[in-house]
Amino acid sequence: MLDLLLLGMTELLHIKLLFIILLGVIVGILAGLIPGFTVTMAIVLTLPLTFGMEPVAGVAAMIGVFVGGMSGGLISAALLGIPGTPSSVATTFDAFPMSQNGEPGKALSIGIWASFLSSIVSFFILISIAPQIADFALLLGPWEMFSLIVVSLTIIASVTGDSIIKGLITGAFGLLISTVGADPIIGIPRFSFGLDTLRAGIPFLVVLIGMFAISRLFQSLENKEMVQDKQRRQEEKLKEVKFILQPLKTMKTVMKKPGTLVGSSAIGSIIGAIPGAGGSIANIVAYDQAKKWSKNPEKFGTGCEEGVIASEAGNNSTVGGDLIPTIALGIPGSAVTAVLLSALMVHGITPGPLLIVNEPSVVGGIFSAFLIASFWMLITQFVGIRYFVKVTQVPVHMLVPIILVLCVIGTFVLNNRLTDLYILLAMGIIGYLFAKYGFSLAPAIIGVILGPIAEVNLRRAVMSDPDWTLFFTRPISLIFLVLAVLSILFTVWQSAKLKRRSAGSL
């Protein structure tokens, strides 16, 4: 374990790479604090900029964006009562009332320290668990790997979005996209419908940029969104924020709540390790559990210190948890880590259980970049927070054209093909329609990433032995398939329970 960490440190402890991670953290914080501009969108836009970098440097930059983005939502949540990202919803419950009570500096400081310390906790969980899981994964054959991906797909489709059916539809759409183009085994074009544009397949990065970035731009251009943005900026002008940061005092405040900090960090790490769950769930679950176990639950929602600690610790610790299946199994824990896997694939690195064995410097770089980015986030937040707040005042109509240009350039540079721009537009329109009608986009993106892996392992299994019962007679494969069924049943039960509860409250 220490060998990987030391190897990563030797790769990253150079001024240029430290600066790249710092820039990534700053970009992530800015993306996180702008309401509606998600961390996923920021990391998608960062991806094309890493093409010319060394693999370790490119991945380190994206880890910086990831860590910074998860903490950036705190700023708008605390000062405006508007969650900058979906994973900072519960932060508004106590951080905003604390700001309204005349203590915005305290709310921000507690949130920053909770974000940093929870990242450190999840870092140690990551370096302890990921290699052990990878060692176990080396024992898996194509039957077990296919069954494992089935588990991941059921979890992803069930926990993202309000509707199980819609989650399954978008996940299936992603899987269908992954089958377009050359057959992975024999190389014959399929599902191209005679179009030369589709003979080479649909690049997963173009799907990623189109469905997340372009679709979001379309939403921003809607009249309702423009009006809401104008009203938000007018409200911000009326709120001249004056705050005094007290880093040492608030650090002691956070350290006096070790149970809340460590417990919420553990919850965030566990939820982060579940493919598709993400920071938004961890943020709310950690807050809920802290309230249930608190000696003073009635104080939650009124500016309670424990509420801010729990929500931010649960949110930021998902980064370490999210990286566990990504590094150990090559399975993206979220849309963000799906982009991270895409970056590795662009650089010719194959993600999967052999990643730690074949590319120890890259894995060590990921570990080290996460640790370094956490420290950069702490420093950057305290030093630059007064300036970060001003970014929330930038009008949407100014951001949209800048982001659109970056999307187009990034897509074209990928393969230098004009036809990719048509695919980008098509994916943007599809993503916009999905989002408009309540379909979560994450299952589609992760389906695109996992689809080829599932197909290759399925076909390898069948080519090795055509007996399909091996998927059920091999113990580990059977366990994974049982987990897949249980995951679906649990989600159906949970959904029915929520419907009964909401019907009872009417």
The number of domains is 1
Helix count equals 24
Beta-strand share of residues: under 5%
Strand order of the biggest β-sheet:
1-2
Please provide a written account of the structure:
There is one protein chain. With 506 residues, this protein is mostly helical. The chain has one domain (2-499). It has 24 helices and 2 strands. It has helices at residues 2-12, 15-33, 39-46, 55-80, 91-100, 104-137, 142-159, 164-178, 196-199, 204-220, 223-238, 247-255, 258-273, 279-293, 305-316, 318-329, 335-346, 355-358, 360-391, 396-415, 419-436, 442-464, 470-473, 475-505; strands spanning 181-182, 189-190. The chain has a two-stranded antiparallel sheet with strand order 1-2. A hairpin with a 6-residue loop joins strand 1 and strand 2. The mean pLDDT is 78.
Topology diagram in text:
Blueprint: H1 2-12, H2 15-33, H3 39-46, H4 55-80, H5 91-100, H6 104-137, H7 142-159, H8 164-178, E1 181-182, E2 189-190, H9 196-199, H10 204-220, H11 223-238, H12 247-255, H13 258-273, H14 279-293, H15 305-316, H16 318-329, H17 335-346, H18 355-358, H19 360-391, H20 396-415, H21 419-436, H22 442-464, H23 470-473, H24 475-505
Antiparallel strand pairs: 1-2
Give a brief rundown of this model:
The protein is built from 24 helices and two strands.
Main traits of this protein?
506 residues; mainly alpha; two-stranded antiparallel ribbon; 2 strands; 1% strand
